[in-house]
Structure formats: structure tokens, C-alpha cells
Amino acid sequence: MLIKAPAILNKRSLFQKLWRLCCVVCFLNISIISFPQVNHTTDLKGLDRPRRVVTLQEVTELALANNFDIQIAKYDSLIAQTDEGVAESIYDTIINAEVGYRNNQSKPASTLAGNKTLENTCNFGISKKLPVGTTITGDFKNNRNWTDSSFASLNPSHDSSLGVTIEQELGKNLLGIQDRGKVKLTKLDIENSQYTSLDRIEASLAGVQAAYWDLALQLERVEIEEDMVEQAKTLYDSNEQKFQNGLVELPELLASEANYKSRINDLLLARNLSASRENVLKLLLNIGDQTMGIIPADAMQIDGSIEELDAALKLAFDNRRDYKEARNIIEKGDIKLSMEKNNLWPQINLTASLARNGVDDHFNQAVHQIAEEDNPDFYAGLKLSWHAENTEARANLKAAKLQKAKALVSIKLLERQISIAIIDQMRLCHVSKEVAANRINIASLQAEKLKEEEKKFKRGRSDTDTIIRFQEDLNLARLLEAEAKFRYQEALIDLRQAEGVLLDRYWSGDNL
């Protein structure tokens, strides 16, 4: 019995090895059938198509040229600018002309008047209103008259005259205060409309830059997930070899395979999300070529310094367009107040005119007499119109005072809101930067932890579950690091927008 025992043990050991080998073969066959093959040599970004590497500067310039919202905002501003021409049309030169013919064969009351009269008129005039409230009018009139009456001294007769009229408003619209006020109000409205359009452009630009960094974040996530897939595959391949050699049990092999499949799923989801973010950026840039991929050239960094709070506040109050718009509203209130005070005055118009004429049976002679003969016609008059109660003007004046007081309170509120927004955004930038730096350090520590644990695993002093858990810790740390760097970039964009300087870095000026 002592001699046969080793033989029995050898046969039992051989049987166990054969059994394990069959289990491995069956397991591998099942894995091959149930699990799709993954090409791990795929491009780092998961894009097997032409790609265009773009910087943040290039993306911003493309957005300013192609973004739909920005183009609409530009058109809104350009449309608003046309109101200036409408307001200034009050000073346009007006030219009028009249030509008339009359054949009068009405039965006269007196036989001396004749039975038939022919009358031709040809009149021409030009007038212009000046910014000081003066209206100047010049006119030339000519009337040709023919009659069959035998008592007409000149037949036909030409009556030509040339005159100038000046009308000055002395009460309401004194020195053109109402006219100039309307033009100034229109210009301020146009300027405020431009500020609104530029704010919309800046907001769109901030969205484009945020989408750029979001795409960079998603592509970095893809890179992280690809690295984790490689690590999971390495662990699975190692356990598979060890299982064949009888160094690990089947549960550890199954755990590593499940981890491998889970990492592949995470990679697929990350690639899908990056493709969606790429389409968002393409839409914002108005790029219709779906065969061209976009790769951000700029990396998410946390270097660089942030200006001090006093400097940031000064930038905000110097550049915020809503603050400039609020100041324009106060200026509009001053103008309206002056106009409403002027509306309390009566309507007083001073009119003076001077005309000279000539009468002859020929047109040329009649015109010649205008200059040669002294036949002046001078008129001066003063016209007064006054609303006794002036109820509407007094009500409008009271409303103008209240609106100005409201504008002063509103700008004080806006100043407080701007200050608080800058303070909060500055703090967020500093916190985001510190958090990102800590996340980078944490990810480095997690990577070192996994590296040391893998050394122990190779020496048989660790297990698969611990390696998988450490891999998950590293994966989460790297994802949180990328997220923190993105949040810092996003906070910087919001700070520049809060300061009102984001657009100025890429725009040639404040005017559209």
C-alpha cells in the first residue's frame, strides 16, 4: 500500500488539472461568444474620422462670425440704429412744387369780368428746420392769367414773386429744446440697444467657450476610461493566466472579467457623451459638416493668477454694459425733465416774411421786375397759444420727476448687485482653483496607491477585489480632477462675463 499511494495521488492530481483545463476552455468559449470584441487600438478620442484641432481663440472667432444667436443680435442692433435717421428727419430739407391749370367759363355776376378766364400757376418752395427751432422757407410763385374781358389792363398777365419766411418758436420748443431732446433720447435708446445686443453676444460667446471646455472635459473622460479599460484588461489577462496555472480561483477570474466589461461600458458611454458635446459645439459654431471631428487644442489648466478684488470691481464698473445702460437711463431722465418743464410754457411763434413781385405781360419781364423794382411785401407777427390749466403738461412733469428718482434708486441697486456678483465670483474662482489643485494631488495619490497595490498583487499579497476597488478609486479621482478643472475654467468665464470684459478680448470695439 505504501508503494501504490504515490501513483494514486499522481492520478488524482492529473485528474484535477484536466478538470480545471476543461473548465477554462469552456469558460473562454462562452466568453468569446457572449462578449463582443473591442478594438483597443482605436484612436484615443474614439474618432475614426478626420479631425480639426482648434484653439479657444479660433473657436471664439468662428462663433463671432457664424453663431446664429450672435448674428441675430447684430441685426437687432443694426435695425435699432435706423431709428436715428427717423428722429433726425425733422431737420430734413423739404422741397415742394405745384403746377396748375384752370379754365373758368362760369357765368360772372358782372359783365365787366368777361366770360372766360384761363389761369396757369407754377409755384416752387423749399423749407428747412434748424436745430435751434427756426424754420426757414423760401418760395417762388408765378401766376399767368388771361381773360376775354375787354377791361383787363394786361392780357395775358404774369404775376411773379419771390419771398423768404422765418418762423422762430419762443415758448414751447424754445431754441429747439424739444426737437433736440427727441433726437438725444433716440440716440440713447440706440446706444442702450447696442449694449443689450453686445450683452447677448457676450452671453452667447460665454456659452460657446463653456461648450469648448465641456468637450475638452468629455474627451479627457474618454481618455481616462480608455486607460481604465487597459488596466482592467491587464488584470483580466493576468488572472486568466494565473487561473490556468491554478494560482487564482474562479471567482477572482469572474470578478476581473465583470470589471473589464463594466469598464468597456463606461468607455462606450463616455464616447457617446463626447460625441453629443461635439455636436453642441458644432451647432453653436454653425458647422454642418458631420464628417469632421473637433478636438480642443487647449488643455484645461489651473495656472495663472486672478486679479485682486479692487481691480475686478473697477473693471466691472468701467465695462459692464448694463451699468452704462443704467447711466444712460438717468441721462434720459434729465432730458425728459427739461422737455416737460419746457412744455409748461405757452406756444409762442414769431413769424417774419419778406417778398418781392413783378407784374408784366411776359414771364421774363415779370421775373426781371422782382430784382429791378422795389415792390416789397413785409410781414411780422407773433402768435400765442396757451393751455390755461395745463393739466397734461403738469402730469407729465410729475411723472418725469418720479421716473428720474426711480432711475437713481435702480442704479444704486445695480451697483450693489454688481459688487456682490463680483465678490461671489472671485471667491468661486479661488475656491475652484484650490479644489482643482487638491483633486490633481488626490488623483496622483490614488495612482501611487494603485501602483503599490499592484506590486503586492504580483507577489501574491493582494487580491483581485482590492485591485478592482483601487482602480475604481483612481478612476473616480481622475474624473473628479477633470471635473474640477472644468469648473475652474467655467468660473473664469463667468468672472470675465461679470466684469464685462469677455467680449472685449475678441471684439474690435463696443459698436456693432
Describe the protein.
With 512 residues, the protein is of the alpha+beta class. The chain has 2 domains: 41-82 and 182-330 and 406-505, Outer membrane efflux proteins (OEP), CATH 1.20.1600; 93-171 and 347-389. It is built from 10 helices and 8 strands. The strands form 2 sheets. It has a 6-stranded antiparallel beta sheet with strand order 2-3-4-5-7-8. Strands 1-6 form a two-stranded parallel sheet. A hairpin with a 4-residue loop joins strand 3 (117-129) and strand 4.
Unreliable residue runs: 1-19, 21-47
Helix content: 55-70%
CATH topology of the largest domain: Outer membrane efflux proteins (OEP)
Instruction: Provide the CATH top-level class of the largest domain.
Output: Mainly Alpha
Question: Sheet with the most strands?
Answer: 6 strands, antiparallel
In what range is the share of β-strand residues? 15-25%
Mean pLDDT reading: 85
For the record, give the distance between the C-alpha atoms at the N and C termini, rounded to a whole number: 105 Å
Count the helices. How many? 10
Helix and strand composition category: alpha+beta
CATH homologous superfamily grouping of the largest domain: Outer membrane efflux proteins (OEP)
The sequence of SSEs as H and E is HEHHEEEEHHEHHEHEHH
Strand order, sheet with most strands: 2-3-4-5-7-8
Outline type? elongated
What is the CATH-assigned architecture of the largest domain?
A: Up-down Bundle
Radius of gyration: 45 Å
How many DSSP E strands?
Answer: 8
